[in-house]
């Protein structure tokens, strides 16, 4: 699913010359103090990814955001898309080598933070820059788009707030992925990687084939099922005219094809609840084969988002009320 808010538009509203000067002064003061005490001010690579709790949020996120952009990954153990996104963000945190800090928040253990940030579904990624929070994106996303977003975030931090990032101790490799023995490659890792690369390159047909190849041997492969659903969704909307789709859906509320296309656009745009609600309403006003087609399309979208997502659970309940 294409993530929403995958841009830095509006971030300049956070900027003020005074804030930038103060943030830069604080960072320079911290480095000067470290040098005075005989240290280099460098941090170990292992500190580039941290687990954050409600109790330590001010210290670990708000205060740190005055010297480096802090990217917050809201996740949970039961969230399948989180298991794809989390390791990617961790790898990028090490690769960017102190240009941003990754803070991981388990929403099950820190529900107050989830509420404060207005999180509606996970994975959700926010940033805090000089004490100011802004949304980055929601849902899994291609690596190329994530890199672009991080580059924009870092640029904003430098230009608007004077954030120069962290200096990483070159002698510390505790958090360096290259220093950690890699796990043996799984039987489908090459195919899954090929699918991701195809998605990044815009080759939706190639991505669909790669995921299907995995599922032909391993029908229960969760990563392949999720990826296939996302690739097929993107392929369906690739040739659509959004304005015409919206108009058709408004004029024909009982037309399953029109409502399904509009729901696909809703989902790609990150409006998950709107997509689900649209198809639940379509099931409500149709009957026979049309009702079944709407129901099946809704179930397909459930697979794209992930069965454990709370929004899927709520939509399943709504669907059951309509059907029974």
UniProtKB/TrEMBL annotation:
InterPro entries documented for this protein: Thioredoxin-like_sf, Thioredoxin_CS, Thioredoxin_domain, TPR-like_helical_dom_sf
PROSITE patterns named in the record: THIOREDOXIN_1 (PS00194), THIOREDOXIN_2 (PS51352)
Signal peptide (residue range): none
Domain of life: Bacteria
GO biological process: cell redox homeostasis; response to stress
Residue stretches making up the Thioredoxin domain: 21-155
CDD domains xref list: ybbN (cd02956)
Pfam families in the cross-refs: Thioredoxin, TPR_19, TPR_20
Protein name in the entry: Co-chaperone YbbN
UniProt source species: Streptomyces albidoflavus
């Amino acid at each position: 699913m294409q993530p929403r808010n995958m841009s830095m538009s509006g971030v300049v509203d956070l900027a003020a010359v005074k804030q930038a000067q103060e943030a830069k002064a604080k960072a320079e003061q911290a480095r000067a103090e470290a040098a005075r005490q005989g240290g280099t001010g460098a941090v170990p690579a292992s500190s580039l990814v941290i687990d954050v709790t409600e109790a330590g949020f001010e210290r670990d996120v708000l205060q740190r955001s005055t010297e480096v952009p802090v990217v917050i990954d809201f996740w949970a153990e039961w969230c399948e898309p989180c298991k794809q996104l989390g390791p990617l963000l961790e790898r990028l945190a090490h690769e960017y080598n102190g240009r941003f800090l990754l803070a991981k928040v388990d929403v099950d253990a820190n529900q107050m933070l989830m509420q404060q940030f207005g999180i509606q579904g996970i994975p959700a990624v926010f940033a805090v820059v000089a004490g100011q929070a802004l949304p980055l994106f929601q849902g899994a996303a291609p690596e190329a788009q994530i890199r672009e977003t991080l580059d924009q975030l870092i640029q904003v931090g430098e230009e608007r707030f004077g954030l120069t990032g962290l200096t990483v101790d070159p002698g510390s490799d505790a958090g360096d992925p290259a220093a950690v023995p890699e796990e043996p490659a799984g039987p489908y890792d090459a195919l899954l990687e090929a699918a991701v690369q195809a998605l990044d390159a815009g080759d939706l047909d190639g991505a669909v084939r790669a995921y299907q190849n995995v599922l032909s041997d391993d029908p229960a492969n969760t990563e392949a099922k999720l990826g296939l659903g996302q690739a097929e969704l993107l392929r369906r909307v690739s040739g659509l005219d959004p304005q015409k789709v919206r108009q058709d859906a408004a004029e024909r509320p009982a037309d399953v094809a029109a409502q399904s296309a509009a729901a696909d656009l809703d989902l790609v745009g990150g409006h998950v609840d709107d997509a689900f609600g649209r198809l639940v309403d379509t099931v409500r006003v149709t009957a026979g084969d049309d009702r079944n087609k709407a129901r099946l399309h809704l179930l397909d979208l459930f697979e794209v988002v992930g069965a454990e997502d709370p929004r899927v659970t709520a939509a399943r309940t709504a669907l059951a009320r309509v059907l029974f």
